[in-house]
Amino acid sequence: xxxxxxxxxxxxxxxxxxxxxxxxxxxxxxxxxxxxxxxxxxxxxxxxxxxxxxxxxxxxxxxxxxxxxxxxxxxxxxxxxxxxxxxxxxxxxxxxxxxxxxxxxxxxxxxxxxxxxxxxxxxxxxxxxxxxxxxxxxxxxxxxxxxxxxxxxxxxxxxxxxxxxxxxxxxxxxxxxxxxxxxxxxxxxxxxxxxxx
Amino acid sequence: xxxxxxxxxxxxxxxxxxxxxxxxxxxxxxxxxxxxxxxxxxxxxxxxxxxxxxxxxxxxxxxxxxxxxxxxxxxxxxxxxxxxxxxxxxxxxxxxxxx
Lengths: 197, 99
Prior knowledge:
heterodimer, A: 197 residues, two-stranded antiparallel ribbon, 60% helix, B: 99 residues, mainly alpha, 82% helix, elongated
């Protein structure tokens, strides 16, 4: 059992160099866009600066998993295509949320019925928790109040919004999408396999 | 192109105005955060995106797009921080009385 787990940790630690290169490329692109000069002097200063910054921030961006000890998640090694697709979906939701809030504000009767809804979502990646909390705040009628160890406390402005996020049976649309985005199902399944062995 | 940029900017101003109205009209702290947290994000985002379109494709519009991305990342975090501070200091949310 122990040997199997150790092998998995090693495969988790392999992409550290790739992660370093990723941070460097992102920082360097950001530098070039902000500076706007593409001659040798500015580009070389930018390259040295981004190398140093990438080296300093590398340990800060390896985030320890909340469920399995010894495993780390890289903040920049996210599936980019999936992330873009999720971003577009989120943008549509944000526009819908704004139109809805505008209708609520401009309605003279103001048909609001706020209440607090709690639901539980177990995920091992802290970045996934941050993304879910941010998405909840941006989308229709809900604000994340607090997250304590996977327990979400959400303030919903009408009853329907709370139900769409945390229905009586099963899970809402958004937690499922986030879990798919970060491959949480597989990571958690793997963890339970290890425990069973 | 300019007309499209104007449409974006005007809709951005509209959403910011609605957010300000919502902050004035909603009954308590949490519901006001609903108005400001969502309205500001899209309002400022749309206006800056409109400015980027108005300027055409250049480095300046790329920088403006970066500002939009950072606002979309930072605004919900700020809203959440204020909301959590209120919740932890024991502020009760307003509820509709009649069942």
